[in-house]
Amino acid sequence: MSGYIDFSISTRGAEAYRNGLLPASKMVAFLKKRWRNTFKSLTVAVFREFITASEWHHTSCKYNTTDFFSLEDVFENRQELKASLAKIQREKQIAKQLKKLGIEKVIYNGEYETVSSLIGSYWGCDFLEGILKNKKEVQ
């Protein structure tokens, strides 16, 4: 295949790597390794929510597309990313407290949900804090 290296990545994709761009999963792994305390709870899903890809390139022999990200993109959006990670950490703490109180499932939007499934959701933190507050007031 023309423009491919070993059927796994396009030549431009390889050039992106050489220029310091990485796919989301590799960027998240790099951030966790380099700045462990800051990005300890970062997931690829949260990363993609706040960081826009700089480029995309074809990968694999099936011409899949892969988004590539730069550290500059991370730096520009670091405050929002840190705020989101802090919120997720708070939600995890609340989930642990609810579990200690025996609450592992709640009704959310008319359906039973596990407390852990609400971590990282849009209303997760406020909703879980409300349950925790009400449970403590009842006891």
Structure notes:
The chain is an alpha+beta fold and 139 residues long. It has two domains: 4-76, no CATH class; 83-138, no CATH class. Helices cover 53% and strands 18% of the residues. The chain has seven helices and seven strands. A three-stranded antiparallel sheet has the order 3-5-4. Strand 6 and strand 7 form a beta hairpin. The model has no long low-confidence stretch (mean pLDDT 80).
Structure keywords:
139 residues, alpha+beta, 2 domains, three-stranded antiparallel beta sheet, two-stranded antiparallel sheet, 7 helices, 18% strand
Fold blueprint:
Blueprint: E1 4-5, E2 9-10, H1 11-18, E3 22-23, H2 24-34, H3 36-39, H4 44-50, E4 55-59, E5 64-69, H5 71-76, H6 78-100, E6 105-108, E7 111-114, H7 124-138
Antiparallel strand pairs: 1-2, 3-5, 4-5, 6-7
Summarize it:
With 139 residues, this protein is α+β, with helices and mostly antiparallel strands. The chain is built from seven helices and seven strands; from the N terminus they run ββαβαααββααββα.
The figure for the number of domains is 2
Quaternary organisation: single chain
Series of H and E elements: EEHEHHHEEHHEEH
N-end to C-end Cα span: 68 Å
**How many helices in DSSP terms?**
7
